[in-house]
UniProtKB/TrEMBL annotation:
It holds the Pfam family PP2C_2. It comes from the Bacteria. The lineage of its organism: Bacteria, Pseudomonadati, Pseudomonadota, Alphaproteobacteria, Rhodospirillales. Coiled coil: none annotated. It comes from Nitrospirillum amazonense. InterPro entries: PPM-type-like_dom_sf (IPR036457), PPM-type_phosphatase-like_dom (IPR001932). Residues 15-222 form the PPM-type phosphatase domain. This is Protein phosphatase 2C-like protein.
């Protein structure tokens, strides 16, 4: 079993949370839906919020009867379940490939005396390695494409420094759509979507069960490390109860609120959805 010490999944703004987080028995996960670039919705939710919830709900349905299956087989069932739901929800509204919903995820599974870490996209898992150092597990080429978007944003702000958030979005949306067309193709980046091809591209590693904590994080929570540079991975492993995790979230939201997203740490969203789970093997 995995003991969940803290769990947070917090919307970054007024829109529905496009993250999800959960756990069941030997499993824990965080999911980060990719904000859509077509404005499409399903059942009144953004595509990203719908897909994050669909993945979360599918895991909760499938995991209780899947203890004997390899992780890839479980994930295949989850994706196929969500693909069927997506087809039913959009039967009369065909979507281009790049307009289909997608999500990054991090998944932790206990397998006896080993812990299996699986990631896809820019969600990551922090653990303590055998040398005692906190390590961040999970790689992705998504940052390459995000830098293209930020480059377009920098140019737009140089030309028009007083752009509103909506105005900046309008100036970079073509780049965002170009990025999205690189989803789940060779030479692009890999994330969960409504096909199973990306499952061949997950990052996976197993480590010994030693009782130490592990933290699963979406990129919104990882801003404390990656964007603002005010935390180190060790700090995340010290968020050993709900109160400490909520204090870290409050610090993140305070920093986001104080920092100019256009002329400080450049980003399209002042506050992003943020998810975090700290677990210990029980």
């Amino acid at each position: 079993m995995l003991q969940v010490c803290a769990l947070i999944s917090d919307a970054g703004g007024t829109t529905p949370n496009e993250d999800a987080a959960g756990h069941h028995g030997d499993w824990a996960w965080v999911i980060d839906g990719a904000t859509g670039v077509s404005g499409a919705t399903i059942d009144g939710l953004s595509d990203a919020a719908w897909f994050a919830r669909a993945l979360d709900q599918a895991l909760r349905r499938i995991l209780p009867d899947s203890g004997h299956l390899p992780t890839d087989a479980v994930l295949r069932r989850v994706v196929e379940d969500c693909a069927q739901a997506f087809a039913q929800a959009t039967r009369d509204v065909p979507r281009a490939w790049h307009e289909r919903p997608s999500a990054a995820f991090a998944l932790l599974r206990r397998l006896g005396e080993r812990l299996e870490m699986t990631t896809l996209g820019d969600c990551q898992i922090i653990h303590r390695a055998e040398d005692g150092q906190a390590r961040v597990f999970g790689t992705s080429s998504i940052p390459v494409f995000e830098e293209r978007t930020l480059g377009a944003a920098r140019q737009a702000l140089q030309e028009t420094p007083d752009l509103t958030p909506a105005g900046l979005w309008d100036r970079v949306v073509d780049q965002l759509r170009a990025n999205r067309r690189c989803m789940n193709v060779d030479g692009g980046y890999w994330v969960l979507s409504t096909d199973t091809a990306a499952l061949a591209h997950v990052d996976r590693a197993t480590i010994p069960v030693d009782g130490g904590p592990l933290a699963l994080c979406s990129d919104g929570f990882l801003r404390l490390i990656d964007l603002f540079g005010c935390w180190a991975p060790d700090g995340f492993l010290a968020l050993e109860d709900q109160a400490k995790a909520e204090a870290a979230l409050r610090e993140l939201r305070r920093i986001e609120a104080a920092d100019d997203p256009h002329h400080g740490h450049l980003r399209l969203k002042r506050s992003d959805d943020a998810s975090f789970i700290l677990v210990r093997p029980a």
